[in-house]
Design brief:
By secondary structure, the chain is of the alpha+beta class. It has 22 helices and 22 strands. Bound molecules: adenosine-5'-diphosphate and magnesium ion. Adenosine-5'-diphosphate binds next to helix 2.
Length: 628
């Protein structure tokens, strides 16, 4: 027999294993969940392939997962008769970690304190490698279902390398043998295994079996028992399922350790037959944003798992929903390719979306606090539906929670409520986009609207600008950015008109001296502030411009020309006018204009181009004013 070949683990995996091996675990039992889920996956893969290539199953269709504990040896073996692995597959699958977000996960783990690590590892599901939480040596003996494939043995102590050599195994499938650590020997005990299976793997469809000792008529004998209940609770009627069963099922499909925020259990009958059990999670998984945006629903056809993450069942913006769908209309031997653009799935999807949106609507009206919490976790994902789901966009718009000049920070209004409260003469829905609520509250743009007691919606999510762009209007009312275009009343305001005529040459001078301005004009929109910058009606807002710069779509310093608006009632503006009227070439006129401009830049949340010059000018003015 050839000597075993030693292979190094890939770098990321090495780092991960190092953390796993050197951490103390309170929740180490999740290793069993991971190994059983791998065994179940392997069986599902085989069963699925055997639908089209029956010889792969080779007559053994008694699918099961078997546990063998040996107290004397301190080992626990998890065996399955699933698809198995070839030598190349073993090296590829058990030597690398291919999941997206692994690097970020490792960083998060390093940063987390030791007590939080098990929770994180549990949620991320490091899969097979969780074995090293309980074992100091792991042996895998596997044989692929591919006809003629030889068995192979993989072994490692989790310290950086693994060995692979030829082996013997009677049929297809995989045995994972854990050489348990001294302090993890409880996993050879029947009660402990029962407890863990019940908690984490109860709804697994395949039986998880174990040989146990029982007493019959005073005699002790061995008997194979199934440890999991295998309940397909989604097939039951609502009244037959207990709330805790829903919670447990949710925790098993989602890896979440909390309860779901909402359960959606539905059965469609008639023209279309399917059952769905879906959940709105209460909390965003910690790796939600660095994981690939994957669908959260599993597809079954008459209890047979067809796809773990079926992209076709839900649109992207509902990817936070977890659960299962079981269809009776699809053929069992449906291929993964057939799932794409499948008319049956399209109809199911339409139904599911409708139902989920309805549930969110109910939650919003009936459980407002819970809904607010939900929106804080997933609102930013739901918002994608505004541009992504034309059919439901109005309903999704109704579901948005938005801060406004009338809500306290952290409290919300909504579009329907905003429109209801609109005064009869207000034609447009007013809004402002920026980085933080604080910045928006202090912004000069909202001053006049506040004075007129008109409500302005305040948006602070990076996605909001795109959302508003694609929404455009709501209930026939145009969405109007208050930092864009002219204030309606300015064109008819007498004071503004005369001032503009009298001081036309000053406005022109400022425009000529300050670069990058499209126009300089007076406005009635300001109350306390001296000046502000506005974009053209169709121009890009300052916020959008900053976003574009951040994603590298626009060069630093290459801004669209802005309009500088001056408050005719402000003392500094009036002082500048006086100086100008006395002597149009007085240097201080330009200095004040430059300060007004930079103040406006700061107020819109951008950076002044020359902060040192700004400070110098302000100081000069202050010294002048104090007269010291
Ligand atoms: P994941 O299950 O998320 O892919 P794991 O670390 O749990 O990640 O497993 C890595 C891979 O190893 C699996 O994708 C599968 O290809 C293979 N594997 C693990 N356990 C088994 C098994 N019991 N039978 C067949 N293949 C397995
Ligand atoms: Mg796995």
């Amino acid at each position: 027999m050839p000597t075993p070949a030693t292979h190094e683990f890939k770098t990321e995996l090495k780092q991960l294993l190092d953390i796993i091996v050197h951490s103390l675990y309170t929740k180490r039992e999740i290793f069993l969940r991971e190994l059983i889920s791998n065994a179940a996956d392997a069986i599902d893969k085989l069963r699925f392939s055997a639908l089209t290539q029956p010889d792969l199953a080779a007559g053994d269709t008694d699918y099961r997962i078997h546990l063998t504990a040996d107290a004397a040896a301190g080992t626990l073996m998890i065996s399955d008769n699933g698809i198995g692995m070839t030598r190349d597959e073993v090296i590829e699958n058990l030597g690398t970690i291919a999941r997206s977000g692994t690097r970020q996960f490792i960083e998060t783990l390093k940063a987390a304190n030791a007590t939080n690590r098990p929770e994180l590892i549990g949620q991320f599901g490091v899969g097979f490698y969780a074995s090293f939480m309980a074992a100091d040596r792991v042996t895998v003996i596997t044989r692929s279902a591919t006809p003629g494939a030889a068995a192979v043995k993989w072994e490692s102590d989790g310290q950086g390398s693994f060995a692979v050599e030829d082996a013997q195994r009677a049929g297809r499938g995989t045995d994972v043998i854990l050489h348990l650590r001294e302090d993890a020997r409880d996993f050879v005990q029947e009660y402990r295994l029962r407890q863990v299976i019940r908690q984490y793997s109860d709804f697994i469809e395949h039986p998880v079996q174990m040989e146990v000792e029982v007493e019959r008529d005073g005699k002790k004998l061995k008997e194979t028992q199934t440890l999991n209940s295998r309940k397909a609770i989604w097939l039951k009627g609502k009244s037959e399922v207990k709330p805790e069963e829903y919670d447990e099922f949710y925790q098993q499909v989602s890896r979440d350790s909390e309860k779901p925020a909402k359960v959606i259990h539905m059965a469609a009958e008639g023209a279309m037959e399917f059952k769905a059990l879906m959940f709105v999670p209460a909390k965003r998984p910690f790796d939600f944003f660095w994981r690939e945006p994957k669908a959260g629903l599993q597809l079954y056809v008459r209890r047979v798992l067809i796809s773990h993450e079926c992209e076709e069942l839900l649109p992207q913006y509902l990817r936070f929903i977890k659960g299962v769908v079981d269809s009776s209309d699809l053929p069992l031997n449906v291929s993964r390719e057939m799932l794409q653009h499948n008319p049956i799935l399209t109809r199911i999807r339409k139904n599911l979306v409708n139902r989920i949106v309805k549930s969110l609507e109910e939650m919003k009206t009936e459980e407002s606090e819970k809904y607010t919490q939900f929106f804080g976790e997933f609102g930013v994902i739901l918002k994608e539906g505004i541009s992504g789901d034309f059919e439901n966009r109005t309903r999704i718009a109704d579901l948005l929670l938005i801060e406004s000049t009338r809500t306290e920070p952290g409290k919300f209004t909504s579009l329907p409520d905003y429109v209801k409260a609109m005064p009869a003469d207000q034609k447009e829905i007013l809004y402002l986009v920026g980085e933080t609520r604080e910045q928006l509250d202090g912004s000069p743009y909202v001053e006049a609207f506040r004075a007129k007691n008109q409500e302005v919606l305040l948006f602070t999510d990076p996605i909001d600008e795109f959302l508003i762009d694609s929404l455009g209007e709501y209930q026939g009312k145009h969405l109007k950015a208050i930092d864009r275009g002219q204030v309606d009343s300015d064109s008819s305001d007498e004071k503004i008109k005369t001032r503009t005529t009298e001081l036309k040459s000053l406005l022109e001078l400022i425009k000529a001296k300050l670069s990058g301005l499209k126009e300089v004009r007076y406005t009635s929109r300001l109350k306390d502030s001296a000046a502000c910058l506005v974009a053209d009606e169709h121009g890009m807002s300052a916020h959008m411009e900053r976003l574009m710069k951040r994603v590298g779509k626009s060069e630093e310093g290459q801004s669209a020309p802005r309009i500088l608006e001056l408050n005719p009632d402000h003392a500094l503006v009036q002082a500048m006018e006086k100086l100008y009227q006395k002597n149009p070439t007085d240097d201080r006129v330009q200095e004040i204009a430059a300060v007004l401009h930079d103040q406006a830049v700061i107020a819109e949340g951008s950076r002044v181009s020359d902060p040192a010059a700004f400070a110098r000018r302000v100081n000069a003015l202050l010294v002048n004013g104090i007269g010291a």
